[in-house]
Automatic annotation (TrEMBL):
Single GO molecular function: 4 iron, 4 sulfur cluster binding
Protein name: Radical SAM protein
Gene3D superfamilies: Aldolase class I
Cofactor dependence: [4Fe-4S] cluster
InterPro entries: Aldolase_TIM (IPR013785), DUF8061 (IPR058374), MJ0021-like (IPR040087), Radical_activat_CS (IPR001989), rSAM (IPR007197), rSAM_sf (IPR058240)
Amino acid sequence: MKTPYFSFAVGELPKGCQLCVRGEKLVLFTTGACPRNCFYCPLSPWRRGDVVYANERPVKSTEDVIEEAITQEAKGAGVTGGDPLARLDRTVEYIKLLKERFGRDFHVHLYTTGALATKKNLEKLYDAGLDEIRFHPDLFNPSSKLFRVEIENIKNAFDFDWDVGGEIPAIPGQFERMEWYAEFLDKLGAKFLNVNELEYSEMTLKTLLEMGYEPVSDESAAIKGSLETGLKLLEWGEKNTSLSYHLCTAKLKDAVQLRNRLKRMAKNVAKPYMEITEEGTLRFGVAEYDDLDELYSFLVEEAEVPPEWLYINREKGRIEMPEEVAVELAEAVEGDVKFFVVEEYPTWDRLEVERTPL
């Protein structure tokens, strides 16, 4: 069936996905370290090291994780990497932290290659409170020794009372390997297999093009043939396995999951002079000038703008204000002052997505 989230499903979506599509899942990136080097891995260069992020926020202390979860009003977390098991103690610490702070109902799922999923390591994750584990073995390199280790380790997960599933990209030309993995999980008693539409990133585009893969269009990062491969697996899986399936599309990630997360965050971080748009971005006016203090004094004393409408953002070198105030000032103020209307994500990094000169 087609879901309301521009994705496709067989059976019920895993609990982690249900929360994710509503924007209720904190993305907890516990390390960029990984035992593998997949040709389709989209990680940016600055995340390939041993770093920790909560959504877009760099984590320097446990309080950063808690603060980000509160800002998002998160009801769960997806623990990812890299491979979170490559820094197991750290990952366990964060799972315990979230469970202790937000309660047992705060749902945590985790992605892993399986390479480090020994019985002892899985026991630590289970004892920490992990609710759902998703395995992504080196499915497209089945002759490697690491793949054989991963497949054996996946079997360990069924000794614990949590939801076990798989998560793989839909790679055109690799249907038989995907089919094999679905059968493998089904025989073990797994609950689901998530299939992601393959997308390129700045890190993978050159490699994917050299391998013969192409984007579906100039406007999309999705790879041609991936969606069709995923749909084919769902149709086969519905008839031949008892697994639930979710084909997560590129459109879901951008138009649904990210948008819903931004909207949850925006209402908690927006200042009084900011408008929250339908997309969850923050829209407001800015004025830029070499001397911000001089500009502030001019706007308050000469232009008679109420001080409560102005905010000096020294980090970004500008004075922020309601959009309509910036529009009026742009028509009235002469000289070197520049006025804009900007839209930003309500995220920690405040990514600017649009700037309109006035």
